[in-house]
Backbone:
């Protein structure tokens, strides 16, 4: 259930207690969307031509005539032919901040960043791989990044120009990038603009810190082998509860639970709930709390799906418009979840505009003013 | 230490380093399977795929992959997720008021959620079936045509991935209610246009006879004109059939052959001719609004964008002389999936109605990995309204 839980020994998952199963991990290259073709080398996708991105894969051996065979070691197939290697993409899952900051995923689906504001005038950026492991100091030193505290946005061209920017420089131990910023007050809004490699596109991550961030408290966790290791308590995405609020390390290590959506029985009640979720999403975006947007967005999609059986009760004209409107609420809820992970304010706001339009359409066709 | 001992020591050291590197790169660790989706392929996904996607995503279909078995679908999980969130699949493109069109292609809210949850949550299999999946067998969707015309066979050598072929064929001097295609090799027939090549053109002011008879797409459900309407075929005219062939990655470097058949469906004599009213704007702007005016009483039966337009959204509204407004369409055309949208019922537009089109260069709502238009930003917008005269 938790692919980011990886241990070097057999045992059980510290989150859900299920038995760990063996896996052999390696790094391969694959297309960001056509993940069927996994290459051992850098290059471009032969289906669509996009540059391949690095990804974590599980390596097993199978048989050409019996693809159901999946072994951890090479060998011989029942028909006497040698086994062939198979590389299977493994999903990543840990989007928990490790230093009490805000955590986003880069659009390459591989790198992750965490921004912190440990004291007034100091911005730090931690950069991780696809399993939320910090980049090696030598790799981090090759990242070109700056933090922008003031910029001008041109809606016509959809581009922005830096007005006040500060260079992010590696810390002495190579653990993070840091810049001293001036002229910032709470809530402290700032944008990290990052090129992970010289030829890579520039990614932007919009951070908003309501207050100074704090490193989480660490507690000992007993692992399967009986020894103890120290695990930081990840913060659920902002606003973060303090570590002391959390009762156990296991609970804290778990990813945020899926939102449980209580579905009311009547259409007006469902629409009222939808309106409340819409307001929550709007507030979260205004606060810059993009990583938390998925919770009310997913609740809204569940409510929209609950309206589907009621379409038959609508007047014919409203019925025709209802189905695509509900589908759009679901689609844009998923898109908001995806954009929220990336931390780009403009994208999140564009996604929300489409979501809000679909919500208004739903309210209209079900007979309630938005 | 002797030279041979040094060499042996060096070899041992190199072997140790190589072994360590292999061990590090193929680190054997423990983890467990990340299934979070309550929906499985067999119980939840396959029924949707069969109903909505199988006309292309089948063995022998034009799509780059079949999605009819778990083994076939799983490697495309991320691609499915991105294409659904981008609104690219099914390739319909209409934003709102889809209910007013014929042969709408879209998922319900529940279906969309099932597919996205499954693709995002570990793609679980459920009870997989070992039954073989049949090859796609295209049929005439409108029933047997009145006349079938086999085109010349086309051979695409192994080193050619994509090709456009144009055929000019004689056509009887009779009005048409539909033209359809039946590909010989469906996996490479990507799209087609069928138009009438007339000797001369005529029409009332602002309106011209519609010569584009079909915007053909694989997996689409063609529409035949209602009784009393027809595409006019002047004496001596010919049909021009333009087919875009494209091999998917599965057929790379394979020589392929196709022989497509054209099916003609004739209309009754005396039917009203379908005409076209165009609104066009050259642009360097990210958005534009432009209008065209209706000069006679007409009924709108269909609408389509310039078949080469991508990377924009278009919204058309009819501003009637009495001050009322009728939303016609709001959609995101894609050249790859250029289609004509048929209104379920004709829309009456009295003389003096203004057709206002708002166009916007727009790809902001695509998830990061979604395919962007390849042609760059559009330099002109064009919308065509198919109409027949009369109230």
Residues:
């Amino acid at each position: 259930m938790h692919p980011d839980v990886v241990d070097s020994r057999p045992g059980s998952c510290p989150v859900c207690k299920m038995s760990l199963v063996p896996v052999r991990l390696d790094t391969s290259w694959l297309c960001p969307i056509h993940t069927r073709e996994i290459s051992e080398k850098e290059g471009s996708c032969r289906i669509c031509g996009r540059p391949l991105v690095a990804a974590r894969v599980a390596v097993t051996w199978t048989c050409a005539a019996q693809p159901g065979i999946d072994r951890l070691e090479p060998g011989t197939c029942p028909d006497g032919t040698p086994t062939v290697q198979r590389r299977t993409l493994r999903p990543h899952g840990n989007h928990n901040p490790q230093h009490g900051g805000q955590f986003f995923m880069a659009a390459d689906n591989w790198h992750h960043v965490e921004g912190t504001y440990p004291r007034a005038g100091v911005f730090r950026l931690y950069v991780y791989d696809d399993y939320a492991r910090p980049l090696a100091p030598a790799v981090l030193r090759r990242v070109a990044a700056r933090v922008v505290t003031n910029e001008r946005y041109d809606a016509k061209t959809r581009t922005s120009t830096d007005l006040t920017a500060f260079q992010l420089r590696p810390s002495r131990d190579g653990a993070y990038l840091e810049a001293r910023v001036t002229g910032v007050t709470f809530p402290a809004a700032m944008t990290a603009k990052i090129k992970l490699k010289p030829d890579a596109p520039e990614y932007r991550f919009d951070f908003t810190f309501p207050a100074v961030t704090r490193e989480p408290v660490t507690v000992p966790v007993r692992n399967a082998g009986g020894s103890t290791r120290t695990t930081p308590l990840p913060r659920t995405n902002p606003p973060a509860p303090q570590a002391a609020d959390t009762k156990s390390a296991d609970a804290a290590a778990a990813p945020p639970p899926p939102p449980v959506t209580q579905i009311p029985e009547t259409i007006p009640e469902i629409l009222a709930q939808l309106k409340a979720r819409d307001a929550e999403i709007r507030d979260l975006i205004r606060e810059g709390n993009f990583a938390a947007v998925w919770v009310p967005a997913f609740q809204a999609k569940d409510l929209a799906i609950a309206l589907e059986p009621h379409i038959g009760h609508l007047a014919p004209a409203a019925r025709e418009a209802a189905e695509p409107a509900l589908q759009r609420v679901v689609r844009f809820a998923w898109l908001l979840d995806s954009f929220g992970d990336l931390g780009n304010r403009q994208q999140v706001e564009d996604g929300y505009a489409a979501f809000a339009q679909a919500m208004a359409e739903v309210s209209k066709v079900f007979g309630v003013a938005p | 230490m002797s030279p041979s001992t040094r060499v042996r020591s060096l070899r041992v050291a190199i072997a140790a380093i190589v072994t360590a590197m292999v061990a590090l790169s193929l680190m054997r660790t423990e983890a467990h399977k990340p299934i979070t989706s309550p929906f499985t392929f067999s119980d939840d996904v396959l029924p949707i795929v069969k109903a909505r996607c199988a006309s292309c995503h089948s063995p022998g279909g034009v799509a780059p992959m079949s999605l009819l078995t778990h083994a076939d679908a799983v490697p495309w999980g991320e691609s499915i997720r991105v294409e659904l969130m981008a609104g690219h699949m099914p390739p319909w493109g209409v934003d709102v008021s889809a209910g007013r069109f014929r042969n709408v292609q879209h998922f319900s809210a529940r279906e969309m959620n099932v597919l996205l949850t499954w693709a995002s949550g570990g793609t679980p299999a459920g009870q997989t079936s070992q039954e073989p999946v049949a090859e796609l067998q295209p049929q005439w969707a409108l029933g047997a045509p009145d006349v079938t015309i086999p085109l010349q066979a086309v051979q695409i050598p192994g080193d050619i991935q994509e090709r456009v072929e144009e055929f000019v064929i004689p056509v009887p001097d009779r009005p048409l209610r539909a033209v359809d295609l039946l590909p010989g090799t469906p996996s490479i027939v990507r799209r087609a246009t069928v138009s009438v090549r007339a000797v001369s053109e005529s029409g009332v002011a602002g309106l011209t006879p519609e010569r584009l008879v079909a915007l053909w797409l694989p997996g689409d459900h063609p529409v035949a004109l209602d009784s009393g309407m027809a595409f006019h075929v002047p004496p001596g005219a010919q049909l021009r059939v333009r087919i875009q062939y494209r091999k998917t990655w599965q057929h790379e470097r394979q020589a392929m052959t196709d022989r497509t058949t054209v099916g003609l469906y004739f209309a009754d004599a005396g039917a009203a001719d379908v005409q076209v009213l165009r609104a066009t704007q050259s642009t360097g702007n990210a958005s534009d609004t432009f209008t065209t005016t209706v000069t006679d009483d007409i009924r709108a039966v269909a609408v389509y964008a310039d078949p080469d337009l991508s990377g924009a959204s278009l919204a058309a509204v009819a501003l009637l002389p009495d001050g009322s407004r009728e939303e016609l369409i709001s959609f995101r055309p894609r050249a790859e999936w250029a289609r004509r949208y048929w209104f379920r019922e004709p829309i009456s537009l009295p003389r003096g109605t203004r057709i206002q089109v708002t166009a916007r260069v727009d790809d902001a709502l695509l998830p990061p990995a979604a395919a962007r238009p390849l042609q760059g930003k559009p330099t002109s917008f064009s919308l065509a309204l198919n109409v027949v005269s009369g109230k």
Notes: The mean pLDDT of chain B is 85. Residues 3-25 of chain B form the longest helix (23 residues). The helical segments of chain B are 3-25, 41-52, 70-73, 77-85, 109-120. Chain B touches chain A through 54 residues (CB under 8 Å).
